[in-house]
Write a structure and sequence with these properties.
The complex is a heterodimer. Chain A is mainly alpha-helical. Chain A has helices at residues 17-36, 39-56, 66-69, 77-97, 101-104, 111-120, 122-141, 152-175, 181-200, 202-206, 229-249, 256-280, 286-297, 323-336, 383-397, 410-419, 425-432, 455-467, 469-478, 480-483, 490-497, and strands at 304-308, 311-315, 347-350, 372-375, 442-444, 451-453. Chain A folds into two domains: 18-283, no CATH class; 293-497, no CATH class. Chain A contains 21 helices and six strands. In chain A, the strands form two sheets. A four-stranded mixed sheet of chain A has the order 1-2-3-4. By secondary structure, chain B is mostly helical. In chain B, 69% of the residues lie in helices and 0% in strands. Chain B has helices at residues 3-14, 18-32, 35-55, 61-79, 88-91, 98-123, 132-156, 163-180, 196-216. The radius of gyration of chain B is 21 Å and the shape is globular. Classes of the chains: A mainly alpha, B mainly alpha.
């Protein structure tokens, strides 16, 4: 006790800047390791992996369009983001909670440098989420059935949301340094972001949310989607940087130079966010409107036509690889048909209602051109029997438009052609009917206007599936003219094909 | 007077009854309550409950349900701090058992919580208000779960103030459970759906289960098992 320090302590304020940077990085390494090992973060990372597997397995019925896949990676990272929000906040407040602020006060790192280290500690977990996004996208992209193009802007949104959450946690810790503040604030943010778009309605408010969801689930050619993905990710980057820099800027212990540099960077980040914000609120350009109109009304101007066998397939360029899949279905349907229908040349044209972008859906009018079949942008699941039903209706009725009015026994012929060649026709029947039933009357899905089946027709079709392809096909080919003549009754068709006829006449609602 | 009865009198005088202890404890426990944490969370939770009214002129039942559930969650997060005791190192050795002290804390908070819940329910416009009884059950279950989690943290760690960790864990679980729980359990459905009834049976089970955990984690352990090292973040 009696030995008093007589020497003045060494002047620590002139420590070289390089060393303090090294200290920042050392602290950032330590904090990021600690952040990655926090139970909420580990739990949410596990939940995120589970979410990826659950969402990606069987998604898009195995026929993904990559311009949809990129958007589907955006919500999952919010799980991790929430854990990061809480844990970064608690990590910043740790020294206060454990009353070690006074000890840290004598160390080389001032509070603002410690805040900067905490900001850097968010990066590794963001990197993990970026890996998750890449895995989710890559899983679909390597499929041979995948079509289209993903957008880097859309893929960046997930990781940027994690960064944004970390920024919010950091800033909250410096603004309200209380342990109880962040969980409640997180709930408030979450509820606000859920309720605000519903309440305000329209595009105006939802454009500023981290994740912009769309009301339409259809697939568009990637150049017609018109989502300002690049601007939006720029906006998110600016926002996240601005929050983190603001948190550093309001921390104590800054030198004048540091303040000036930080203020300059903050202004830069805000400028970045503003540029992105202006870019994303620009709305749909007139060129885009024109391109969408052309794609909807005159798709042949954009499309590439390819011949497979007898028929021609016209598709938007991104879907050209899928034309072979369509051709297989067309060939199967034609192989069941008789008469001239077996060798008829069809024009399969891809059509999409693109005029409303991703904001709304619209029905496609059936084509009245003979031997023209419509195929849509999605495939797999119910979309496949839907297309084969359209092919069958064109083979039986001559054109697509007539499918909406048919009410007689020809409906049985159509449904047999559409589904008789599949390995599980009853499953396909359930998929192609609007109410997912296999008995009673129902609407049948179609790429354009639907068709309808009566209860009697349904039972005859199911009898045919039981009888099997080898029994029914020769009879179909033998009686093709009668089976496809207008006004043939369902009972007559059943009799010709040798199955039990339903009671009562055809009656369509 | 026999010697034995004199002893009894003396013991009675030395060890006052539980009721008297509790009466004496009320003031110090009131002072030790994390009033600011509770007040702030209650205020934010009320703001959340008022969001449908604030955001829209004609709120729909769905947003009212979301807001009321979120308000209950926010308040439950505040309750996670109720058992925080910075002086735990000192109070763990006092003769009054911890379960009495913690129960007294909760009993003192309960009227405030009831008042708060009434206000939150009243903030939701009556025409879109979900069934109050069932929602009260949900809120009570969430609150009990939060308190039980805090009691568990006290029972198994040395942390004097486990509130912030408990709140973070509780919030994470609350966010994941609507995604992870089977839809048929009906715990997050809307009143129009048929699972609403069975969902509230499940909420009642959660409430009872949380109560049991609370009771089991009430006593101060004689020898502490260290699942989590002391004082790390």
């Amino acid at each position: 006790m009696s030995t008093v320090l007589t020497l003045a302590p060494a002047d620590t304020s002139t420590a070289p800047a390089r060393q303090s940077w090294q200290a920042i990085f050392a602290l950032a390494r330590f904090e990021s390791r600690k952040l990655l090992l926090r139970i909420p973060v580990l739990f949410m990372l596990a939940a995120y992996v589970a979410w990826i597997v659950w969402r990606t397995k069987g998604a898009w019925y195995g026929y993904p369009a990559l311009q949809d896949v990129d958007r589907a990676t955006q919500t999952g990272p919010l799980l991790v983001g929430f854990a990061v929000l809480l844990c970064v906040n608690q990590a910043v407040l740790r020294s206060q909670r454990h009353d070690t602020e006074r000890l840290f006060g004598v160390l080389v790192l001032e509070p603002w440098r410690r805040t900067a280290a905490h900001a850097l500690s968010i990066l590794p977990v963001t990197g993990l989420v970026a890996l998750g996004v890449a895995a989710q996208f890559g899983w679909q992209a390597v499929k041979s059935t995948a079509v289209g193009n993903g957008s880097v802007g859309e893929l960046l949104v997930g990781p940027l949301c994690v960064l944004l959450c970390g920024g919010v946690g950091l800033l909250m810790a410096r603004l309200v340094p209380k342990a109880f503040a962040i969980p409640v604030a997180a709930v408030l943010f979450l509820v606000f972001s859920v309720l605000a778009p519903v309440s305000f309605g329209g595009d105006g408010a939802s454009r500023w949310m981290p994740i912009i969801t769309e009301s339409s689930t259809k697939t568009l050619p990637s150049d017609l989607i018109g989502r300002p993905a690049a601007s939006h990710s720029l906006y998110l980057t600016g926002l996240a940087l601005a929050l983190a820099l603001l948190a550093v800027l309001i921390s104590k212990g800054r030198t004048k130079t540091a303040t000036a540099v930080l203020a300059g960077s903050l202004a830069g980040a805000i400028a970045l966010g503003v540029v992105g914000g202006i870019g994303q609120s620009a709305g749909v350009s007139s060129e885009m409107v024109a391109a969408r109109t052309v794609a909807t009304l005159n798709p042949q101007k954009d499309q590439t036509c390819i011949r497979h066998g007898r028929s021609t397939y016209c598709a938007f360029p991104e879907w050209v690889p899928r034309t072979t899949t369509w051709a297989e279905v067309t060939d199967h349907v034609q192989s069941l048909a008789g008469g001239t229908a077996q060798t008829r040349k069809l024009l399969v044209q891809q059509r999409v209602e693109a005029r409303y972008g991703m904001e709304a859906d619209g029905a496609i009018e059936p084509s009245s051109t003979p031997n023209q079949v419509t195929v849509r942008t999605m495939w797999g699941g119910p979309r496949t029997p839907e297309f084969s039903a359209a092919v069958a209706s064109v083979l039986v009725l001559g054109n697509e438009k007539a499918g909406g009015d048919v009410c007689d026994g020809r409906m049985v012929t159509i449904m047999w052609l559409a589904l008789g060649w599949t390995s599980h026709p009853v499953t396909e029947l359930r998929a192609v009917r609007l109410d997912d039933t296999v008995t009673g009357s129902a609407s049948v899905l179609s790429p354009t206007n639907g068709m309808s089946m009566t209860a009697g027709q349904t039972s005859v079709v199911r009898e045919l599936f039981v009888a099997g392809q080898s029994t029914v096909t020769p009879k179909v080919k033998a009686h093709w003219a009668e089976l496809t003549s207008p006004k043939v009754t369902t009972a007559k068709v059943a009799e010709l094909l040798g199955v039990k006829a339903p009671a009562g006449a055809d009656k369509c609602e | 007077m026999t010697r034995g009865s004199g002893d009894t009198e003396q013991t009675d005088a030395q060890l006052p009854s539980t009721a008297r202890v509790l009466a004496q404890l009320i003031r110090p426990v009131l002072r030790a309550l994390p009033v600011r944490a509770l007040g702030a969370t209650a205020a934010v939770a009320l703001l959340i409950a008022a969001l449908p009214r604030l955001l829209s002129d004609e709120p729909n039942p769905w947003s009212a349900l979301v807001a009321l559930r979120a308000a209950a969650l926010a308040f439950a997060l505040g309750l996670a701090f109720v058992l925080d005791d910075p002086t735990r190192d000192l109070t763990s050795s006092v003769p009054t058992r911890r379960i009495l002290r913690t129960t007294l804390r909760v009993a003192l908070v309960a009227p405030f919580a009831a008042l708060w819940w009434t206000a939150a329910v009243l903030l939701v416009p009556s025409e879109v208000r979900p069934p109050v009884g069932d929602m009260t059950l949900e809120a009570a279950a969430a609150a009990a779960l939060s308190l039980a989690a805090a009691a568990t943290a006290l029972r198994f760690t040395d942390e004097p103030e486990p509130g912030q960790r408990v709140a973070a864990g509780f919030l994470v679980i609350a966010l994941v459970s609507p995604l992870a729980l089977p839809y048929d359990w009906g715990m997050y459905v809307s009143p129009a759906e048929k699972q609403w009834g069975v969902g509230h049976d499940h909420w009642a089970m959660v409430l009872v289960g949380a109560g049991m955990v609370w009771a089991a984690c009430g006593p101060e352990p004689i020898r502490r098992r260290r699942l989590v090292p002391t004082r790390t973040s």
